[in-house]
């Protein structure tokens, strides 16, 4: 529990949680699809923008992560919150394809600035404060803060849009501005153990940061866990962002109920995020596989479901996504062998996530243009379960090979030590005989 951490670490966790809350409190999330449709955009244009958004995120993730590792994580959190504030204001006055594209490109830039730097800052601060044991709970509580805010605020989104269409974007900008203030409040990282630095800090070279790619190449378990994260992220984005509003529209839910429905599902996600540590005893890799399969199955079951069944499936999906996120974060951070490249590697993971999402969203646009959303959900579920099963087996086999290799090294070292002792004993015996 975070209560076992020192007071300074608890303050950092609370401030970071507040930052996560306000950067994640997007009032427009339940209605952006309808808002863009009302502004004259077609389905093809809307999903085109979504695909470009993911691709832009891919282009920005590695540079921003590498620069965050080289400079100061906090500065990137501050800059990201500023960019998100500007991004949330764009759709207020520029309601065209170009305006919404600019909005999402700025969202991509803001998120790329904070995605790797945020987790890296929290993990490094807790590690250097001898409190890394509370990281998973801290990450889960940060997610819970964000979800609680959404549960309280998002039910009003549909009504706010009916009262004043741009008001959800105004409120989102105000929340991002609050996140800027919280980012300014975060303290500097404590010095690493055994690290001698001047007051200004010793910067790593950009070449060192680019070496993060070699770290990933030499860490097969990390690469496999990142691949697991791709499946998780893709399902969450497709289920909670890209298809959430089209699904509710097909099921004939009134606009005023969109925010309420998102708040209900978010309540289940919050319950999962706050209780993810309960599943630790079953093994993290195994739990990630099972929860991902549950999420995929819940999306597939939306096909025959009526409105009540849709609500139930979305709640199950959200509960599983809340449980899985802190576990996946813990797996990735624990598998990173070199903390100097932590933000870069986390950004690389986000890059892969968004690359796959961009391809999936492009495919989704094609399915929707043919009126085949149900077929898309079934194909997505089958592909995800097959992929996750293969990855779970590969992770298990890789861990077993590593344990076998380590055991062999230990045995070889013990034999060498025994041989050296035998030689020493023989030499001692010879000396005694000569004497």
Unreliable stretches:
195-206
Helical/strand content category: mainly alpha
Q: Within the CATH hierarchy, at the fold level, what is the topology?
A: Growth Hormone, Chain: A
Query: Could you describe the largest sheet, including whether it forms a barrel?
Result: none
Work out the helix count.
Answer: 17
Count all strands and give the number: 0
CATH superfamily: MFS general substrate transporter like domains
Give the count of structural domains.
1
Q: Return the CATH architecture.
A: Up-down Bundle
Distance between the termini: 66 Å
Relative strand content = under 5%
Order of helices and strands: HHHHHHHHHHHHHHHHH
Please compute the radius of gyration using only Cα atoms.
25 Å
| CATH C-level class | Mainly Alpha
What do you see in this structure?
With 435 residues, this protein is mostly helical. The chain has a single domain (2-188, 216-409), classed as Growth Hormone, Chain: A (Up-down Bundle), CATH 1.20.1250. The chain contains 17 helices and no strands. It has helices spanning 7-24, 32-38, 43-70, 73-93, 97-128, 135-153, 157-163, 167-185, 206-210, 212-217, 220-242, 244-250, 256-274, 284-300, 307-335, 342-369, 373-434. The radius of gyration is 25 Å and the shape is globular.
């Amino acid at each position: 529990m975070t209560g076992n951490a020192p007071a300074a670490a608890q303050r950092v966790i609370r401030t970071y949680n507040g930052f996560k809350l306000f950067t994640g409190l997007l009032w427009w999330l339940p209605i952006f699809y309808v808002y863009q449709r009302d502004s004259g955009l077609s389905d093809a244009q809307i999903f085109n923008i979504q695909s470009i958004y993911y691709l832009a995120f891919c282009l920005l993730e590695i540079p921003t992560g590498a620069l965050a590792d080289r400079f100061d994580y906090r500065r990137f959190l501050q800059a990201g919150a500023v960019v998100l504030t500007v991004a949330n204001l764009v759709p207020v006055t520029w309601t065209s394809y170009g305006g919404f594209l600019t909005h999402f490109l700025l969202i991509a830039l803001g998120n790329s600035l904070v995605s790797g730097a945020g987790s890296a800052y929290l993990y490094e601060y807790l590690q250097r404060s001898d409190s890394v044991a509370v990281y998973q709970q801290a990450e889960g509580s940060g997610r819970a803060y964000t979800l609680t805010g959404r549960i309280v605020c998002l039910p009003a989104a549909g009504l706010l849009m009916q009262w004043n269409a741009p008001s959800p974007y105004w409120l989102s900008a105000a929340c991002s501005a609050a996140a800027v203030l919280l980012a300014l409040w975060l303290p500097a990282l404590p010095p690493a153990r055994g690290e001698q630095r001047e007051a200004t800090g010793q910067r790593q070279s950009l070449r060192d940061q680019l070496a993060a790619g070699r770290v990933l190449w030499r860490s097969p378990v990390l690469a496999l866990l990142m691949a697991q994260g791709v499946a998780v992220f893709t399902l969450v984005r497709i289920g909670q962002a890209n298809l959430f509003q089209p699904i509710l529209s097909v099921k004939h839910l009134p606009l005023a109920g969109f925010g309420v429905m998102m708040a209900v599902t978010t309540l289940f996600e919050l319950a999962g995020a706050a209780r993810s540590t309960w599943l630790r005893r079953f093994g993290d890799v195994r739990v990630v596989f099972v929860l991902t399969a549950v999420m995929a199955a819940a999306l597939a079951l939306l096909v025959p479901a009526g409105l009540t069944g849709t609500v139930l499936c979305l709640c199950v999906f959200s509960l599983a996504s809340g449980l899985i996120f802190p576990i996946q974060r813990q797996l990735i951070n624990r598998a990173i062998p070199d903390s100097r490249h932590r933000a870069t590697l986390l950004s690389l993971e986000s890059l892969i996530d968004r690359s796959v999402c961009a391809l999936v969203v492009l495919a989704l646009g094609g399915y929707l243009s043919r009126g085949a959303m149900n077929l898309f959900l079934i194909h997505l579920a089958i592909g995800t379960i097959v992929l996750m099963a293969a990855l779970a087996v590969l992770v298990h086999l890789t861990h077993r090979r590593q344990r076998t290799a380590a055991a062999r090294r230990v045995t070889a070292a013990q034999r060498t030590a025994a041989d050296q002792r035998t030689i020493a004993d023989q030499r001692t015996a010879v000396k005694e005989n000569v004497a």
